[in-house]
Model the fold of this input.
Amino acid sequence: MIEATGLRKQYGDFTAVDGIDFAIEPGEAFGFLGPNGAGKSTTMRMIAATSTRSAGDLRVLGFDPETHGPEVRAQLGIVPQADQLDEELRVVDNLIVYGRYFGLPLDYVKRRSEELLEFAQLTEKRTARVDGLSGGMKRRLTIARGLINAPKAMLLDEPTTGLDPQARHVLWDRLFRLKEEGTTLVLTTHYMDEAEQLCDRLVVIDKGTIVAEGSPAALIREYSTREVLEVRFGSARNAQAAEAMAGIGQRIEVLPDRVLVYDHDGEAAMSAVHERGLSPITSLVRRSSLEDVFLRLTGRSLIE
Amino acid sequence: MSELLLEAPAPTVRGPLRGIYAGNTRSVVARGLRVIARNNWLIVVTGFFEPVFYLLSMGIGLGALIGGVEFYGTEVPYAAYIAPALMAVSAMNGAVYDSTMNVFFKMNYAKLYQQMLSTSLGPLDVALGEILLALFRGLLYASGFMLVTTLMGLNLAWTAVLAIPAALVIAFAFASFGMAITSYMKTFQHLDYVWVVMMPMFLLSATFFPIEVYPQGVQWVIQALPLWHGVDMIRQLTTGLVQPSILLHLAYFAVMILVGLVFTTARLRALFLR
Amino acid sequence: MSESMPTRTLADAGGVDHGAVARRSRTWGWWFVAEHRIRAMRSYVFSWVGLGIGEPFLYIVGLGFGLGMLVDANQGEQGVDGVPYIVFVAPALALAAAMQTAAQENTYGVFGGFKWFPMFFSMGGTPISAAHIVLGFQLSVLVRVLLPLTAFAVVMIVLQLGTVGGALVLIGIGLLLATAFGFAVMSWVSTQTDDRGQLSFIERFVVVPLTLFSGTYFPLETLPLLLQWIGWISPLWHAVELGRTALYGAAIEPMMLLVHVGYLVAIAVVCCLLSIRTFAKRLDK
Done:
């Protein structure tokens, strides 16, 4: 339903997106995972027909967004990174007015707005001013707004960035419901837990290129081990301790604040560390995550 | 929620406007009217007072010192001389304020146009909608001001009725141009430059005194600027001293409107759909 | 931290005597506030200088000269108030500009300082007091107002309108007016916590009418009594009366001289105290 080949975006000398290929199927939840500035938002804007590509091919819902912008945008639901709500209007009016931009009939838009307010758990805030809403409420309102035109696909640019943990879970719950109902979700994120929770399939994107592709589980299987041991020795001693740990586990990564040991059995690696007479300040065994995949692929962590 | 699903209709506009116009300007206008109705009708309504204050002060106070002024060979009382000018100025000010300050805020802070252009709307829908809103405001002010001047006996001929549509033409011209210029502005200080152009135009375009007091060269410069055409056009109508030159004024504004619309649409496209 | 044992961490680079800092702020806080604002003004200075020089020239040469042709033609030898119209109107134009600038700075500067770029709250977090913020802010406004006032004075001197000394005294009168009007606007704006458009009412229903009905473009007596009262309560009218006397020696009773100055000073003092009270209340939360 969305297909790109060799998609590029150039701003002057700077290449934001450097020839990427992907294909998104109907009904799937597809993610772009990468650090800030990787080119995720630019890709989203090209899909949404609000940014023209510099090279390559792009088909969105059967149209070329370059020549059929309005047709493409009519079928998409957009949730931009900054909510961009209409602060001069009340909550419910935000939905109504936005629906009218699509040329939908007023009575339809009014009925659907009530329905969406309920979905977004904002019915009580119906006539509240937008600037008084919490961050989580604003984001839910933005998602409701994006649904007003019954879109064939929702584009969500960093849907939970800047929200507190509780608000994130409420939001994920709502997005799950959409997914269950068969809405195609395309989202960008730099949170690995979000990608693991929501995405059926994702591409890891770095410096404008795709470095890996697959389901979260498959990516972890391919690029990481089952478990990870995290040990801290204090910022001055991590590197030195890592040298002493050489040979433990399958792979060792040294970060400024901790050392990561990749192994199928984290507890075993832990005993091995103690056997060498090293005593870390803190230690933790956890399951591998996409963060580890990203670290393996680029040598950097996602959130820097 | 799935029982209520209706697909957004695909825009049906074909031809050269495809992609920039979705034929849905009314939704942009409806949004503006809703904001006025819910939030700031008081601000909009009170904008009517400024030209009335000027008329009372200058018309009565200065009128006592000046007496009458000659216009196309006929002596006109001073208050009746400046009233049409104030109407033209208020049409210009309202349109410029709406299309610069307000548009600047919506572009850069409220991100309103990003919202609009992520739907099936095209840039021309947005531009036309904003301009029509400015015109609606202009219509309110022009009608209110007409009422005041009529009560004060400052309309000297029946042609004065035509001053209302004439004021709308002036507002249309300034609004369509103002939006394009605003699209180049990056900071609030750039808005100051707008007033650098507006202020001299306001003071010198035969608003409070005939331009004949200036040397020929200065007169030509003033006559090249749009406000002078607006003032002279409305003054011809309210005094009844209609001259053939009124057609020239109308032509001037027709060109300005056309150029402004093309310019604004191109700028909106370049800014938000690139 | 005692001075004999300077510890150097990020939080305390050593050598800061916190007692002395507090004492200095108690005395000089107002100046730090003004300095902050004046520094911030430097980025605007170019557009202001451009406007500041253009505006007086336009108003005096454009409006004063143009209207003067009509008025003097009609009034004949005696002119207005015994002088040509351009001389009559020049001091009023300068003072109206001072009032407008002071009003604008105090509207958006004060409201913004609490809301849009909440620097008053960050100042409140330092040893500086509410009174210092109020005084320092107004001082920075006076610096700003000095620009158009000086420009008007220069234009008057170049065009030989009135006396040179008078043009210079006019700057002082302008600063007094800006202080009075500035504090008046500040004392109201500082009580406003939300902008629902009422801020623009200051311009619309105070500044513009005062500019038009304070005997600026014509003697106040020309207006019907019904409208003259606006002039009597208008700080601008009181300042303009003083200004005309200063510039071209317009006749004035000594008693009225006292009334004009006293009125402006009284407004300044009362509104300054009100502002300090409001600032203190809003910063204490």
Remarks:
- Chains A and C do not touch (no CB pair under 8 Å).
- The longest strand of chain A covers residues 14-24.
